Amino acid sequence: MTHESCLIAQFNQIIELTETEKDLLSSLEDDVKEFPADTILVAQGEDAGSFFSLRSGWASASHDLEDGSRQVIDIFLGGQIMGLREVGLTQAHATVETMTDVVACPFPRNRLAEVFAESRRLAVLFFLLLARDHAMLTERLANIGSKSATARFAHFILETRARLNIEDDEFEMPFKQTLIGDALGMTSVHVSRVLGKLTRDGLIERKSSRLIIKDMEGLTELGGFNPAYLDVRVDLLLK
């Protein structure tokens, strides 16, 4: 291997991988494809037999509701496996769609099973990352039920920054207001108002698709953000 993929880099943040494990993960990225923004990779109700390793860009998973609205379930960053929630289902429970231009690698379900069979450690790591995804969804639903719109958005901003694993207070956040609303239980108009309030209060600044945190302490207090639910503890399962 001449370079390290986002998938390998993400796993390496949790535990030091062996060369064999890196090769197994790399095998999930053999079929490299480019997809433009707003491309549906998997539609809700379709066969759930394929997954995508996201090498770069941003994507989301959303569930369409009977009233015509949708609930955003996941926001994917480089290094994640898209569609993993459907690993035990025959039909996709959510629509996976690109938010930006992305580079992603499709692979069949049976390849994932082969990786698990060849490496117990990787199987455990995939389980832990799926558990973290579940924890993020649980946290978001709890926020929708208990926090104000401004607090929800503040928490969402800080969660995104934490997931990007960066120290900078300025970072890319290429979310349309409709997507933010569908993730946080708000209308796009409400999202616009919340953005304006956070800006006027001196907590953030928006520059096109980039966001700048101007008052980290104030934003953290407003959102009640504690990143403990994002902390993957591999030692709990791997001794």
Please explain how this structure is put together:
The longest helix has 27 residues, at 120-146. α3 (109-118) crosses α4 (120-146) and α5 crosses α7. Helices cover 41% and strands 21% of the residues. β4 and β5 form a beta hairpin. The strands form three sheets. The protein has a four-stranded antiparallel beta sheet. The chain is α+β, with helices and mostly antiparallel strands and 239 residues long.
What is the fold's blueprint, element by element?
Layout: H1 6-14, H2 19-26, E1 33-35, E2 40-42, E3 50-56, E4 59-64, E5 70-76, E6 81-82, E7 95-98, E8 102-108, H3 109-118, H4 120-146, H5 149-164, E9 170-172, H6 177-184, H7 188-200, E10 204-207, E11 210-213, H8 216-223
Antiparallel strand pairs: 1-8, 2-7, 3-6, 3-8, 4-5, 4-7, 9-11, 10-11
- Give the % helix: 40-55%
Q: Are there runs of 5+ residues with pLDDT below 50, and where?
A: none
Helix and strand composition category: alpha+beta
Shape: globular
The overall pLDDT average reads 91
Q: For the report, how would you describe the main beta sheet?
A: 4 strands, antiparallel
Percentage beta strand: 15-25%
Total number of helices = 8
Structure at a glance:
Helix content is 41%, strand content 21%. The chain has 239 residues and is of the alpha+beta class.
Top keywords for this entry?
4-stranded antiparallel β-sheet, 11 strands, globular, alpha+beta
